[in-house]
Amino acid sequence: MAISVLDINDASLGLWRNTELALASPGYALLDGSGYRFGEAARDEARLHPRQINHRYWSQLDTEPLTPAFGSGRHTADLVHSHLLAIHEAGGRPDSLVLAAPGSLQHDQLALLLGIVEQCPFSVAGLVDRAVAATAGQAVSGYNWHVELQLNQALLTGMRFEAGQLVRDNMVPIPGSGWLAIQETLARAVAEAFIRQTRFDPRHSARDEQALFDALPGILRKLLGASETNVDLDGRQARVERASLAQACESHYQRLLPTLSSGDAQVFLGPTLFGLPALMDKLPGARQCEPDAVSGGIDKHQQQVLADASGIRFITSLPASAGAAPASPAAPEPEPVPAPPPVEQIAPSRCQMEFNNGSIHIQPLSGPPLVINGQGLEQALELVDGDRLELPDGTAWRLVRDSVE
């Protein structure tokens, strides 16, 4: 039976139809005049209009008056209702949805959510804990932890496996280590690399800061298979190292590890967590939940998840099977970085370089000028770590530590 699933993680709500992703819509609301924009359209302007953004309405779902006021919405329930309507319209208007909700939603919030859906043009076909659904399709062990990043917290869901059933029995929220906080940490580390190497601060303007945050997912993807990568922002380029991002994230990792490292539990990481630098090194036995793990688990266990004549109930246990866990895909070996030429060979006819006690001084000679950090070299200058040198033919080099890139 073909079913549609709304996977409710406010870092990116996913509408799945026949186990295919039809729409991803992060839990951002942008106040736009008298109305709202939701999802990616709102997230992509979060740094440009921070006072017109709300990203807590899913986690703080209730009917308390919004303070301060946020457009025509009276409370977060109104924003959730409007977001659901937008998802339903953009996702092809399915007649019914199975809701996969995080365990962090309290009983009264789940009841409120079901009441909101009653005012929507679709019905609820079932309600299930998303961590249980994601994990039930895996080969589980005696005890299991599922880890997800929501916007404003991480959520650890503990599940025991007994008598062929995977049963949720524990939840550990980690406030301050959600996707937003980790993004802030990563953005700060990347910005520091730009400041150190180019003297450009990408957080100085809202436009550049938005571009920095937009670039983070791509940076993480590149660093899965490399020890470093070059990042371009506003016509400038900086080298970002996986090790520096891992060090920056260490405080977040230390909030997760005490729970996940205790005992012999199997750990399942959501897709975003799996891509964080060096986290897998600290959890070598952890396994990745694929992006379609929730919808796939629901599809596999339709009989248990879909509501029957007795009505909707929140499913927190599903059939599962134990077995040898397949090895998590290993990150590709870092690509070797070609060794740069000696600095004195960069442009001997354009400049003269002097080395004195570890410092490098560059003196312009005849011909078209070299460009240093975007400006023509007109007089002698001492180079510092991060300075960018551009030749007239467009070739560019950057001074990094004791060499030039």
Which fold name corresponds to the CATH topology of the domain at 4-134 and 292-321? Nucleotidyltransferase, domain 5
Please compute the radius of gyration using only Cα atoms. Answer: 25 Å
In percent, how much strand structure appears in the residues? 25-35%
Task: Tally the beta strands.
Answer: 27
- Name the poorly predicted regions: 325-341, 401-405
> Would you tell me the structural class of the helices and strands?
alpha+beta
For the sheet with most strands, the description reads:
6 strands, mixed
Q: Classify the helix fraction into a percent range.
A: 25-40%
- CATH superfamily caption of the domain at 4-134 and 292-321: ATPase, nucleotide binding domain
Mean pLDDT: 87
- Sheet with the most strands: spatial strand order: 3-2-1-7-8-17
Keywords:
globular; alpha+beta; 12 helices; Nucleotidyltransferase, domain 5; 6-stranded mixed beta sheet; 405 residues; disordered C terminus; Tumour Suppressor Smad4
Explain what the structure shows.
This protein is of the alpha+beta class. Among the domains are: 4-134 and 292-321, ATPase, nucleotide binding domain (Nucleotidyltransferase, domain 5, 2-Layer Sandwich); 343-404, Tumour Suppressor Smad4, CATH 2.60.200. Helices cover 28% and strands 30% of the residues. It contains twelve helices and 27 strands. The strands form seven sheets. It has a six-stranded mixed beta sheet with strand order 3-2-1-7-8-17, sandwiched between helices. It has a six-stranded mixed beta sheet with strand order 16-15-10-11-12-18. Strands 23-22-25-26-27 form a five-stranded antiparallel beta sheet, with no helix packed on it. A hairpin with a 5-residue loop joins strand 1 (4-7) and strand 2. The longest helix is centred in the middle third of the chain and has 20 residues, at 179-198. It is globular and about 85 Å long.
